[in-house]
Amino acid sequence: MALSIDAPTRVQDSHRLSARPVAPRTNRRLGVVAIVASATAMGAAGLFGRLATPADAVIGEALTLGRMLVGALGMLVLLTVSRHLGQLRRARLSWSVVLGGVFLGISLATYLSATVLIDLSLAVVLHYIGPALATLLARVMLKERITHPDLLSLAASFLGMMLAAGLVGGAPSPASDQQTLGVVLGVVSGVFYGAALLCYRYRSDMPADVRSFWNFTFGTVATGAMVALARPDLSGMTPTHWVWAGGFFLVCGLLALGLLVVAGKHLRAAELSGLSYWEVVVAMMIGAAAFGESVSLLAVLGAGLIVVGAVLPLLSGRPR
User: Fold this and answer.
1) DSSP of 131-151
2) How much is the CA Rg of the chain, to the nearest whole Å?
3) Beta carbons within 8 Å of 55's beta carbon, 6+ residues apart
4) Within 82-147, where are the H helices?
5) Residue 65's closest CA among 51, 54, 78, 49?
6) How many Å separate Cα 10 from the centre of its chain?
């Protein structure tokens, strides 16, 4: 199947070249529900990842490979049941579809490794450099308009993240090789996550289930290459670890990432970014409840700012 050069989707009149481009129909409410559900499931990735990882092991690449592979197989089953395999064969692949899956696979593998090395709240904050980066790139590359509520949303969410992670007003974490590696992996995950979100803004003509299948497929290729290079040691995996890994593949893979693609079809980058920050709040609450990570008053304030930032883009009408 040949790859084509991407451009934002446009439907043109085949008879009149001068006809005005028609944007694909979107469902904002569906997009909001999809991204909130996706962010909630994604916020649980640190919980599943830690409980699926043996002590003193870093196997983020292997777990993410399973996450992507199960997602691809799951979407293939759904396409078969819904009789959409014909759409899969007819869909035109393009570089944004390929790179969207590759970037997401790299991002999630490095993020999962970061959650084992540093606090969940800090790992997820570094990962969420991505949505802010995607919003800025969408403004430059796709000419998406950023409204005043959008800017306020990004500012509130970013400040909220800094407070929630203890990067503002909190005690500095002790420096160590593990801490440094975790921070580096977290930043890398954020950059690649932003690149993946930007790719989702292209080719919105492709059905969500078809796009999800290719997303998982090319994510599998990327993480498979990472596993081949890193060669993670899985010898310490017990049956309990594998049970948690299976839950991780389904909840944080097939469910969360499939819904992320749906949201990317129906929301602008600023709306997608603001609402996706809900994952930071979920990860912070899980870190406190399951692993005893401290939650200060400033962190609670930060969580409140993230919620405010998520709502602000929805208060303004969709830019024309």
Assistant:
1) HHHHHHHHHHHS-----HHHH
2) 19
3) 236
4) 85-90, 95-117, 120-127, 129-141
5) 49
6) 25
Work out the number of other CB atoms within 10 angstroms of the CB of residue 316. 15
Distance CA 84, CA 232 (A): 36
Nearest Cα neighbor of 156 from 127, 131, 122 is: 131
Amino acid in position 96: S
Distance CA 247, CA 85 (A): 27
Q: At what angle do helices 208-230 and 95-117 cross, to 10 degrees?
A: 50
Contacts of 278 (CB under 8 A, 6+ apart): 35, 36, 39, 40, 43, 306, 307, 310
Amino acid letter, residue 11: V
pLDDT in tens, the chain (320 residues): 556 556 554 444 444 434 444 455 678 888 889 989 998 998 898 899 889 999 888 888 999 999 999 989 988 988 898 888 888 888 888 999 999 999 999 999 999 889 888 888 788 888 878 877 887 887 788 777 777 777 787 778 778 777 776 666 655 555 677 888 888 999 999 999 989 988 887 877 788 888 889 999 999 999 999 999 989 889 899 999 999 999 999 998 889 888 887 887 788 776 777 787 788 788 888 888 888 877 778 878 887 887 787 777 666 555 44
Under 8 Å CB-to-CB from 142, ≥6 apart: which residues?
8, 198, 201, 269
The secondary element (H helix, E strand) that includes residue 298 is helix 297-315
CB 195 within 8 Å of CB 103: yes
60, 186 in Cβ contact below 8 A?
no
Tokens read off for 41: 């499931």
Q: Which amino acid is at 285?
A: M
